[in-house]
Structures are given as structure tokens and as C-alpha cells.
Write the C-alpha cells for this entry.
Amino acid sequence: MSVTRYAYVYARIRARLSDLLGNKDIRALVDARKEDFLAILMDSPYRASMAKENLTEVDARVIERALKQELIHQYLMVIRSTDAAVRDFMIELFRRFEVMNVKAIIRVKAVGMATGTTESVLLFPVEPFFRDYRDILVEAGSLEDAIKRFGEPYRGVLEDSFQDYKKEKGNGKRLLDLENALDRDLFGAIWDKKEHLGRADRETVEKVIGTELDIANLMTMLRCKEEGIAGAEMERYFMPYSYALDLDAVQDAMSADNIPSAIQLLPDSPYKSVLSDAIHHYEEQKSLVTFELALQRYFLRWIRKVMSGYPIDIGTVLGYLYLKEVEIRNLCTIAVCKENELPAEETLKLVMM
């Protein structure tokens, strides 16, 4: 897509970039008293989204629903402001939220969680581009029943991996098989779509999405280590796409005895530095969330680097959408913390800045 053809979507995004909350704004929300949180949020660019809900006190679920709708609106704005190969690529990227919905449904069905209404689980409103699967929450009586009710490609993808799920049931690997199958299908399609972009755009996508997949593969490795999955078996869970992570060079890490040792055996890279710095927090908390947050903060810095100077290309478009997603994730996290009256110092550990 030429600079001229990017002009329209670029102008719309530049106008919205100034509305993104800065670190000072996020910190103000973190530090706010519970009774002041809504007022501060109402005085932000999210005023219109919040006003529709008529909230009088912090309700994290309602806030999350409104913010998810806002995020979807931003993706739809980009899709409707682009054309040709870029639009096709953005639609495929937007499908990430449909995949998130499918994952959310199979998780609750896998654990037998009661879902009496279509609002039992908050899903992204991905219509009209993709199907509304909320009816499956109520109508499907089991995970296998839910899988049969999904449309393609999800039904076929999940049915193919469901046999592995059934064979391994009870040893903790369960959802990894199903979720990995969904991710492979999604990112394979995204990777294929970027081949139709111009050279410069294609290279930018490989940087951004490739880095996201590097991080996903690292987290998969750590999750497998935590669940006791052997190195040889672990490889089948990796995405076959990357940017800076050489999957052939992580064999020693995959065979390590424990998670800290696996990190130390990774090849030298910014990823290794980020994970190494987080080891002491992991040893205190024994939670992979420590590493996930550390890698996501690194990705946030990477996105800002890609956007440096706001080039008139797909990098600024992708950067804006990723920054918006992080911002909304932060706001949802803060809302949950406020609702549960967590202290500011604990909340701050969970947000990305």
C-alpha cells in the first residue's frame, strides 16, 4: 500500500494517538482511591464508552465489556479505512479476537463451568465480520459438543486435536493441545496474508508479528517446562514462525531440569536478558505471569521503537492497535484491582508501562 493510499488511515490514527493514555495517566488511575477511579476514567478519552454504562461504582465486568467494545471499534475503523491486501491482512489480524472467544468457550467447557446465559463469559463483539458464538456457552453440554457447534475453520482444527486432548486427559496438558491448534491456524493464515503486502510492509509485519510469536514460543516453552512436558514433545507446540528467536538454538533450554535453568541456557538475546531479570520474582511468586509480564513490557517497548517517527506505513497502524490493546488491558486490570481493593503497589506490578 503506497504512502498516498495510507494517507486516510494514517490521518485517522494520528488523531487518535494523542488520546492514548501516558504513563502518568495510568499511574494516576492506579493510585486513585476506589471511589475516585470512575471519575478519573470519565475524564479520559473513554468518557463516551463509560457514560453509556451509567455506572455509579466500580464494576470491573461492566468496564471490561465497554472497553472490549471500544477496542473492536478501533480495529473496525482501521479495516474500513484500508483496502486491497492491507485490508485483507487487517481482517485476518482482527480474527485474533474470534480465536480468543473460541478459547474462552473451550476453557469453560473443559472445566465444566456452568454458563447459564450468553453473558456468562465476556466475549469480544466480533460481528459482523465473524460469528457470534455466545449461544454455544448456553447450548453446548460438553467440550466435545461445543467443538461440533463451531463453524470452520475452528470445528475442523479442534476436532483434529481433540483426540490428543482425550488421550492425555488428566495429566495437565489438556488445553495446550487445543489452544495451540487454534494459534497455528490463525498465525499461519496471518503469515500467508502478509505475503501479499508490499516489500516494506511485509518486512515490518515480520518484525512485529514475528516478535509476538517469538514471545509466544518462549512462553510455550516455559509452560511446557512447568507442566513437565519433555523437550522432544515440546517442539510440536511451537509456532513455526519467528523473527529473532532461533528455535534450533533452544534445544538445551528445552532439556533443562527447571525453568530458571532453561532461561540460562537460552541463546543470548534481548529475550534472555528480560527473562533472566525476572527470575528472582518468579522464584518468589512461582508464577509464569512474572515472565509473561516481563516479555509483554519488552514487546511494548519494541512496538514504540517500530513506531518511532510515526512512519506512514503499516508499522504505525499495527503499533497503534497494539498500544490500544495494551492500554485497555491495563484499564481492565486496574478496574479488577480497584473492585477488589488491592493496594496501588500490588496493582502496579500487573500493569504494563
